[in-house]
Amino acid sequence: METGPSKGLHDVSLMSHDRRLSGRPRLCSDCGLCDSFLRPRMAETCLFVHNRMAEQELRLHGRRRQDGDEMHFGIFREQAILRMKAPVAGAQWTGMVTTLAARLLERGEVEGVILTGTMPGTRFQPRPLLARTPAEVRACAGNKPSLSPLLGVLDEARAAGLRRLAVVGTGCQVQMLRQAESLGGGETPGPPLTSLLGLERLDLIGIPCSDNVTYPDQQFFLRTISRSPETVVHYEFMQDFSLWLHHEDGHRERVNYIDFPMDRLQGIFPSACLSCFDYPNALADITIGYLGAPLGWQWVLARTARGAELLDLLRPDLEARPPGAAGDRTRGMPRFIQMLARRPARPPKPVRALIAFLQRRRGPQGLEFARAIIEMKLLRNYRYVRDKFPALEARIVPYHVYEAIRPYAADYAAVFGEPLAAPRQEG
C-alpha cells in the first residue's frame, strides 16, 4: 500500500517521529551531535538555535564575505572545475571525495575518517561510521540522499584515542563542528573541540546538501518519480533541469524538474532543511560538489589554507577546465517569487515538454546555474522561516542571505507586501 510523506505540506515538525529525537529543538536535522558527548553543549552549537556563520567566518578567514560570488558560495581561496582522470567505480561523480578521504588515510595524515556508509541490505539507508582503512572509505562511495546522524560517531573516535581525524559532512554537520570547535570545555573558556577529542588535526571535507529527507521519505520519493524504483543505483538533480536516475542494468532514466508531481512531494522535506541556508557548505576546509560545473565535471571550492593543501593532494590525478557561465538567472526570479506565494497548476504535458526544452537551451548554465539554484533555495527558505518561525528569523537566518537576494527586494515586496530585510535586533 502506497504511503505519503511523513508530514503534510504545511506541517511544522521534526523531520522524523523517532523517539530518539525527543527533547531537541523543533528544527532538527538529526546531525548526530546530540547523540555524542557534546549533547550538553547543543544550545551553543546548534545552528537551528543560533546560526553563527558570521562569527565562524571571522574565526576561519579573518573577514566576512565579499560582494560577488562569495555571497552565494561562501568564502574561498580557489574555485575550480575538475574531475578525476580515472573515475572511481561506484562513485556518485568521478570520486574526488572518496579518493581524498582514502588518500588521507594512506598517507597517515589522519587515523580515521567519519563518513556515511550504507546499511547492510539496503542501497540508500545511511549508516554513519568511522573508517580506519582506505578500503573502508572506498566501500562508502556514492551518495546516500537521506538524513544521517553522522556526528554521533565522534564518541567512537574519542574512545579510540584518535589524534588526527577527517569528517565528510553536510553543511549542518560542518557548522555544528565548527561552532563546537570554537567553544571551551567547561563553564570557563577552555580547550577547543580538537583538544577535547585529543586531536592534532581535524579536516572537514564538505559536500553540498539541499532538501535532504528521511530514509522512508527517500523511498517514497523514488516510488513517486521512477518507473522502476527498486533498481535505482544512484540519482542526482542535474544541471540540465532534470533528475538522472541510474539503474542496475546501466540505463539512465531522466525526469524533467517541471514534470515532478510537487503536490505529492513537498511534504517530504524536513522543516530543518527548509530553514537551512548553507547549500555550499561554506565552513568546510574544502567543498566538493557539482552544481557550478558542466555535466560530468565537479565543482570544487578550496576555502581554508588546509583546504588548499587537501586539493593539492588530489591534483596529480585531476584534469581541469576553466569555470564558465551562461544565461541570465535574474530573468526567471520574479516568476519564481510569485510561485512562492501561490504555486500554479501543473501545465499540460506538451507545455511541460516545451518548458523543459527552453530551460535546457536558454536557462542558466555553469556558475550562473549554481547562482540561480542557490538564490532560489535562499528565497524559498527565507520565506519558509518567515511563515513558520518568524520569531527565530533574527537567530537562524545568517547575514549573507539578505545580501545575496537583495536584487529581488522590489519583486519580493510587491508579492508579499513586506520588505525583504533583516529584522531589528533587540537590545
Protein described:
With 427 residues, this protein is α+β, with helices and mostly antiparallel strands. The chain has a domain of 245 residues. The chain is built from 17 helices and 13 strands. The protein has an eight-stranded mixed sheet. A three-stranded antiparallel sheet has the order 6-7-8, with no helix packed on it. About 2% of the residues have low confidence.
List keywords for this structure.
17 helices, 13 strands, alpha+beta, eight-stranded mixed β-sheet, 427 residues, three-stranded antiparallel β-sheet
Query: What is the distance, rounded to the nearest whole angstrom, between the alpha carbons of the first and last residues?
Result: 54 Å
Instruction: Pick out the low-confidence regions.
Output: 13-17, 186-190
Class derived from helix and strand content: alpha+beta
β-strand number? 13
Q: Which strand order does the major sheet show?
A: 3-2-4-5-9-10-1-11
β-strand percent reads 15-25%
**Gyration radius, to the nearest Å?**
21 Å
Shape: globular
Query: Percentage of helical residues?
Result: 25-40%
- Return the string of H and E elements: HHHEHEEHHEHHEHEEEHEEHEEHHEHHHH
Number of helices: 17
**Overall mean confidence score, pLDDT:** 89
User: Major sheet: size, sense and barrel closure?
Assistant: 8 strands, mixed
